[in-house]
Sequence to fold (293 residues):
Amino acid sequence: MRHLITTDDLSIDEICAIYDEAERYLSRPPAKVLKDRLIITLFFENSTRTRSSFEIAAKRLGADVVHLDVAKSSTKKGETLYDTAANLNAMGPDAIIVRHAQSGTPYQLSRHVDCAIFNAGDGAHAHPSQALLDLFTIRRHFRGDIEGKTIAIVGDIKNSRVANSNIRLLARFGLNIILVAPPHFLPKTDLPTAMRLEDVLDDVDMIMSLRTQTERHAHPIYASLKDYASDYCITKERVGDRDILLLHPGPVHRNIDIDDAMLADPRCKVLEQVKNGVAVRMAALKHLILANG
Ligand code: NCD
Fold:
């Protein structure tokens, strides 16, 4: 049974095939290859983009999509997550798309069900579909010429599953990665790091800005997000006229992560990431669900 728990579940060839398929989805209406398939979305953490993106992707391919409202479900009545999963599994879905605050939950679930598990974000661990759509957006922008290009990942890297998944995936595709953050936001790493944005701006082709993951901080770290912004906000003033591609997984803390001017700048690809996300998720759903038979 194939799952998408981390991007390592896919080979480079498979990822390239998914990207070719996603590219086709951007230009013409898809065949309903998941007709009569059942996909369940199970989100224990808030989501705007990821859940709707997966649901739209599944529906575009003709699948039936059921969202389990966790706030009203039996986990609230004391049922364990595994019993909930076993019950959902008994309804015969082809995939369960799960988001959970605890790292490792999708992997644990994958051992209790016989359908594909898609990890839609688990704690600070992984967010594979986000990294896949980020790399797709980068590849499209550079028309495939990405090997040796340099990206700065900026912000709360230590607590970011988006950063974690991207660090792994982008390195596999030959990108150079620089981590830019204050010491308390840096994970243990062998990658090059910098404390100041100004020290890397002349060396990078791309910036991936991240939201400060306040929900994962045991104690408030910055007195206010404004203090963080004064050092790390991607402003038009800082970037100047440099030819830098700007990414952010959303939700953006406006004028904290990226300022109004850069959000409106054509170098900023936030909405393109969202658009590409549907196509990439369509291709990933199709690839893994059909591979499972
Ligand atoms: C991210 C997430 O939930 O991990 N959002 C997303 O899926 N696009 C990033 C974040 O919440 O900061």
User: Anything to note?
Assistant: The chain has two domains: 7-127+274-291, 128-270. Strands lie at 38-43, 64-68, 95-100, 116-122, 150-154, 176-180, 193-194, 206-209, 245-247. The mean pLDDT is 95. The two ends are 9 Å apart (CA to CA).
